[in-house]
């Protein structure tokens, strides 16, 4: 496959041949993650389900969203989003996980209904 | 970059059938145009209106603050005035101004393209901006908002009286317009550069626009989402930040400032680009350390995302996080300093001409330096705790945004006015306005540093008598500043009819935008340009700036 | 429609080659997708922060979602991505029948997703899973989970509806021949569609697979 993929398959059979296996893989992963949710793994349930989600996302990104093509521009855009999301998560959790106990939201006893009603109008 | 391969005479003025201003006539030809130059003018019209509206809020506040008592505005009205001033000035003036007016007009010209990558998207983004503006106007007419431009929870979700939902929707919609423009700029810069115009031959203004667009694309959606969360909580009572149901209001501040701190760089990065163009042209000098200028821009746009927590030192954020954010904030100051030093070094032994754009640029460098250095005070946790929510903070960010971004906007507008309209402005008046803006700004905002450090809190309209002298000074300065903002509108309008015709390159500047007629033809260039040299080619790289009298110079910096 | 004439008709204003324009549309859509990803990063961050604070309440609330609806919908969306990919490649290879069929299938699968989602919402409402007074669970932070459930699925459904709108528009245009198949719009629409699918791939484990074991 070159640059912008001008040599892509030219007939329907070839197209299906390329992408149907991806779909089969996606479905297998879906079955795996749904079944895996019922395994008693404790915290690792989350790890497992997110790992499978990442695997599915990778399949979609590489084969459906054409990131497999050697086009640096597309990879640039995709990686930018990942890097900046990492910034957002890392630094926010740097606060959330290290906060002094009295400023954690959990120290106010949560109530089922808010006792204080809004003072003003709530719509436009 | 005067390097069009085939040297040829560029007509100073296009024929009426060529000029983008007259190629088509009638209202529809403007409202349905896909020409980036016309869309820039559409934006200019809209943004000028918002500048007046936002300015009106400032005027109301400064009048109120003449005396320590409440005379003109009630407490509630004052809250609405400063909120509206903030919302309009941030989202409807500062963030769009330089990118969508100057950037829209100049980006394709500077890179030798016929238009932006997606011309129709460009027009759509203007209409989205107008829709957002209409919502903002509705908010104002319906009575305004009193949360401050930051929309902090739980004030905005549970207690505020004003039209928070309408204001949030307006800002939300404006975000789409920003993102659409930014996507357009990024794709244009990547894919429409003229042959030979490599990345390190781009003018710094293009680099600045590119970095700004990247920040816009990655930060604005977070603001959109956080406003949506506010909307859901206030309109439908869905708990998200409500501490009574386990929510965390500080989380709102994290998400908000994840956008709003990079938004500061959205406002100031384009100014850096403009100033680089002005300083080099009026000092007749290659920019000192071009590649470092580029790296500084990219560094700012990257590290600018890592410092948002310095707005939250007193919010209940953990001490650990505060220290991390404090350290990173010092790191992001480095590239800004690099830029200031490089501009100064560019001036060194340059042939400086004190034309109006240069006066704006020099004013920018001074004011931005003060604003940047006081930013370092605020980045240090102990000082920040002392001056949080005082006029010190107000003064600091006005030095960056008004002293910096607005000066650069006026400077850039003055510089490129002949290119945009084909007319020269009256130089004497322009110099007068530029000098007046500098002094008016100083009188308005320097007293705020002093009273802030003495403890005058922001967002109060009643204050102890001891602060009155500083407030009167600031209000008096604001009168001068307002005059300095209005004056250019007068002589620019005058020049449209009576101004002298501009030649293609009235300032003898480099850059592709000066290699076409003033105003440019619809297709920007009659012959597609090609580039064979770097930017700011004001003198050969190994000799000094052009001067008959002087001794030859040693080559400077990385340009050697 | 093929050959030079079609290329000519497809080429938009500032571009000089179709190849370049196609690259621009892909890249522009990708940049927009990056932007959208940050849009969804906001609530996902809030979700993660709250989940780390209130693990029990979130697990209890997670059990209340309907895993059958969720799984069926995931399968529908993944399949729609398959047909969308086929449509985009079909358009590029100028296979008119394949393109039209697959666009129609994509839109239909998207609609099916929304219908299933509608049934699921109806059941959720019956089970009093809307945050506020009369909420089904006792633990207040469980309401936080459902705040994000409604918000994320709602915003996702909105994105999907926009995707369906785009797909149907392209289908009609391609049917009438007003949009020639080499147009880069098919690929751009495909990228957007796959992104909406990607979002769901992550929402599925976070909203449906919690507290099952």
From the structure above, extract its key features.
heterotrimer, A: 124 residues, mainly alpha, 2 domains, 57% helix, flat, disordered N terminus, disordered C terminus, B: 560 residues, Cytochrome C Oxidase, Chain A
What does it look like?
The complex is a heterotrimer of chains A (124), B (560) and C (213). Chain A is mainly α and 124 residues long. Chain A is 57% helix and 0% strand. With 560 residues, chain B is mainly alpha-helical. Helices cover 64% and strands 0% of the residues of chain B. In chain B, helix 2 runs antiparallel to helix 15, helix 10 runs antiparallel to helix 11 and helix 13 runs antiparallel to helix 14. Chain B is globular and about 70 Å long. In chain C, 58% of the residues are buried. The model of chain C has no long low-confidence stretch (mean pLDDT 91). Chains in contact: A-B, A-C, B-C. The interface between B and C is large, with 42 and 37 residues.
Low-confidence stretches of chain B: 1-7
> Segments of chain A where pLDDT lies below 50 for 5+ residues?
1-5, 115-124
Shape of chain A: flat
Kindly estimate the percentage of residues of chain B that lie in beta strands according to DSSP: under 5%
CATH homologous superfamily identity of chain B: Cytochrome c oxidase-like, subunit I domain
User: Which H/E pattern describes the elements of chain A?
Assistant: HHH
Beta-strand content of chain A: under 5%
* CATH first level of chain B: Mainly Alpha
Order of helices and strands of chain B: HHHHHHHHHHHHHHH
Helix/strand class of chain A:
mainly alpha
Please outline the major beta sheet of chain B: none
Global structural class of chain B = mainly alpha
State Rg of chain B. 23 Å
Terminal Cα span of chain A: 54 Å
Oligomer: heterotrimer
**Biggest sheet of chain A: strands, sense, closure?**
none
> How much helix is in the residues of chain A?
55-70%
């Amino acid at each position: 496959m070159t640059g912008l993929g001008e040599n892509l398959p030219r007939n329907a059979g070839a197209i299906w041949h390329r992408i149907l296996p991806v779909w089969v893989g996606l479905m297998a992963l879906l079955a795996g993650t749904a079944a895996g949710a019922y395994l008693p793994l404790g915290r690792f349930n989350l790890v497992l389900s997110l790992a499978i989600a990442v695997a599915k996302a990778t399949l979609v990104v590489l084969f459906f969203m054409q990131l497999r093509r050697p086009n640096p521009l597309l990879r640039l855009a995709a990686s930018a989003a990942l890097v900046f999301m990492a910034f957002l998560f890392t630094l926010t959790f740097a606060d959330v996980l290290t906060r002094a106990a009295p400023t954690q939201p959990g120290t106010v006893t949560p109530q089922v209904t808010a006792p204080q009603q809004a003072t003003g109008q709530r719509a436009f | 970059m005067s390097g069009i391969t085939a040297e040829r005479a560029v007509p100073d003025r296009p024929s009426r059938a060529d000029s983008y201003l007259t190629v088509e006539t009638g209202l529809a030809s403007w409202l349905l145009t896909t020409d980036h130059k016309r869309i820039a003018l559409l934006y200019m019209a809209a943004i000028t209106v918002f500048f007046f509206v936002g300015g009106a809020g400032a005027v109301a506040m400064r009048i109120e603050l003449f005396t320590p008592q409440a005379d003109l505005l009630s407490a509630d009205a004052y809250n609405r005035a400063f909120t509206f001033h903030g919302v309009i000035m941030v989202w409807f003036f500062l963030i769009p101004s330089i990118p969508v007016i100057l950037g829209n007009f100049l980006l394709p010209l500077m890179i030798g393209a016929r238009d932006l990558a997606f011309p129709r998207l460009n027009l759509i983004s203007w209409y989205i901006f107008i829709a957002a503006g209409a919502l903002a106007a509705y908010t104002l007419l319906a009575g305004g908002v009193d949360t401050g431009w930051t929309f902090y929870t739980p004030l905005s979700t549970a207690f505020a009286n004003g039209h928070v939902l309408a204001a949030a929707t307006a800002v939300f919609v404006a975000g789409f317009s920003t993102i659409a423009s930014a996507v357009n700029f990024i794709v244009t810069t990547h894919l429409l550069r003229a042959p030979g115009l490599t990345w390190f031959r781009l003018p710094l203004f293009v680099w600045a626009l590119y970095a700004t667009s990247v920040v816009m694309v990655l930060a604005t959606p977070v603001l959109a989402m956080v406003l949506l969360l506010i909307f859901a909580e206030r309109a439908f009572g869905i708990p998200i930040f409500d501490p009574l149901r386990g929510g965390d209001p500080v989380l709102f501040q994290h998400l908000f400032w994840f956008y709003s701190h990079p938004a500061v760089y959205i406002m100031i990065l384009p100014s850096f680009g403009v100033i680089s163009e002005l300083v080099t042209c009026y000092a007749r000098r290659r920019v000192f350390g071009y590649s470092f200028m580029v790296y500084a821009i990219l560094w700012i746009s990257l590290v600018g995302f890592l410092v948002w927590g310095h707005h939250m030192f007193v919010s209940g954020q953990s001490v650990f996080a505060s220290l991390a954010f404090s350290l990173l904030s010092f790191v992001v100051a480095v590239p800004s300093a690099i830029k200031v030093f490089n501009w100064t070094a560019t001036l060194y032994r340059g042939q400086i001409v004190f034309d109006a754009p240069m006066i704006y640029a020099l004013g920018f460098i001074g004011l931005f330096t003060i604003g940047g250095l006081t930013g370092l005070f605020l980045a240090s946790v102990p000082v920040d705790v002392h001056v949080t929510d005082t006029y010190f903070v107000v003064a600091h960010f006005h030095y960056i945004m008004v002293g910096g971004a607005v000066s650069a906007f006026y400077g850039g507008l003055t510089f490129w006015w002949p290119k945009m309209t084909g007319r020269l402005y009256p130089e004497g008046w322009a110099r007068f306005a530029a000098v007046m803006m500098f002094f008016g700004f100083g009188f308005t905002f320097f007293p705020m540093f002093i009273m802030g450090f003495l403890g005058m809190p922001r967002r109060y309209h009643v204050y102890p008598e001891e602060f009155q002298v500083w407030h009167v000074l600031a209000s008096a300065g604001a009168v001068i500043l307002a005059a300095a903002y209005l004056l250019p509108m007068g002589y620019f309008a005058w020049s449209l009819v009576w101004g002298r015709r501009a030649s293609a390159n009235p300032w003898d500047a480099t850059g592709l935008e000066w290699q076409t007629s003033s105003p440019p033809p619809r297709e920007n260039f009659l012959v597609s340009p090609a580039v064979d040299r770097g930017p700011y080619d004001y003198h050969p790289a190994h000799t000094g700036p052009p001067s008959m009298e002087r001794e030859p110079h040693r080559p400077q910096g990385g340009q050697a | 429609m093929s050959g030079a004439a079609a290329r000519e008709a497809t080429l938009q204003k500032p571009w000089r080659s179709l190849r370049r324009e196609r690259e621009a549309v892909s890249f522009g859509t990708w940049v927009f997708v990056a932007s959208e990803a940050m849009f969804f990063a906001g609530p996902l961050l809030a979700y993660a922060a709250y989940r780390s604070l209130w693990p029990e309440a979130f697990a209890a609330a997670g059990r209340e979602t309907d895993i059958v609806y969720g799984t069926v919908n995931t399968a529908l969306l993944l399949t729609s991505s398959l047909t969308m990919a086929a449509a985009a490649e079909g358009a590029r290879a100028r296979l008119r029948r394949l393109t039209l069929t697959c666009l129609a299938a994509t839109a239909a699968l998207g609609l099916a997703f929304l219908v299933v989602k509608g049934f699921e919402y109806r059941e959720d409402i019956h089970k009093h899973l809307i945050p506020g007074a009369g909420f089904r669970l006792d633990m207040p932070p469980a309401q936080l989970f459902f705040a994000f459930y409604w918000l994320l699925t709602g915003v996702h459904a909105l994105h999907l509806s926009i995707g369906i709108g785009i797909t149907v528009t392209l289908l009609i245009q391609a049917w009438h021949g007003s949009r020639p198949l080499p147009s880069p719009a098919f690929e751009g629409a495909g990228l957007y569609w796959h992104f909406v699918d990607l979002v769901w791939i992550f929402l599925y484990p976070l909203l449906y697979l919690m507290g099952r074991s």
